[in-house]
Hints:
- By secondary structure, the protein is mainly alpha-helical.
- Helices cover 81% and strands 0% of the residues.
- It is built from 14 helices and no strands.
Amino acid sequence: MAFAFWVVMAGTTVPTPLYPLYGERFGFSPMTVTVIFAVYAMGVVAGLLVFGRLSDQVGRRPVLVVATLLAAGAAGVFLGAEQVGVLLVARVVSGFSAALVTGAGTAALTELMPSGGRVAAPMVALGANMGGLACGTLMAGILADVAPDPLRTPWIVMVVLSVVGLVGVVVTPETVARRSAVTLRFQRLRVPSEMRSDFLRAAMAAGAGFAVLGVLTAVAGLFLGRVLHESGHALAGFVVFVAFACTALGQLAVRRFRAEVALPAACLGLIVAAALIATAMATESLVPLLIGAAANGLATGVALGHGVGSIATRSAPEQRGAVVSTFFAVLYAMLAVPAIGVGVLIRATGLRPAGAAFSAVVALLALVVLLSLVRPRARARTRATYGVRP
Length: 390
């Protein structure tokens, strides 16, 4: 089950190092690349809102079978793509597969694995999710460099891996005993009034990190090729691999932070990451880009882990699913919309100025969240010092 989860998520980042090749073959601009990526993220948002409860109704295994089939289908569409419109269709299908597998895969692993085991189910789910995102782009980059047909070989490998994952899902027992009728409708976005300010801060911080992940995923290959003149596709895959792998590490590291420290630390990390990425743009240097990708991943993981943990503990059980879905809908929207904005800026000003402007916006957003966290605590300390009543 974990392998199928990994395969589906890996398929969503395989196009990352291949975008420059698709651009050369089909003759489209960086703006088109960001739109293709954004279509995937919006597909994930739509899938989460429509299919979020499907595995509770029909069972985990049927949903995971469909998710794996969609992943194989998306790879097949990419395999035969001869125009930009087909790439858009493939990305939408890939987004739906990711939306289905995220909830159903996490729930299935939680129910299949013993609660007292040496490895906790959430850690396996995290490894499958972020590990797939990280490894998909690295694998595709390596294959694009060494394989004779760089736009076909990665997808042939993904089809084979998806079939193996599908077999694994089929032979895994179902964990949902009671089924119910299927009701597909958009889940309402909901945030309880008593936690809106905390929700907004966590969503803004994690969303800023997701925006950087989205832009790196969309244009890392273009930056390396056009600015740094690095033609190797494996390097583009490695940059995104570092970002997603460090996001997973950040989610693990959040447990070592006190609750009141986690989000400010994440905001500081996002500011540092934005400065490093802007430095990479200004100096045409690879090292700041790699360090910035790592710093952004760590900060994003901390903000994400803090946000999900806070929502899970503070929201009522009957509202928890809707609030978590709202949180991830915001994050995936932040993954998509800024990428399109950067595409527009690239067309208007060029790749390097657009990257610098985007980095400044991310740093400003993180700074706003940081100040909103610091000021109330400063007021509280002042009241405590001078005996002022709140």
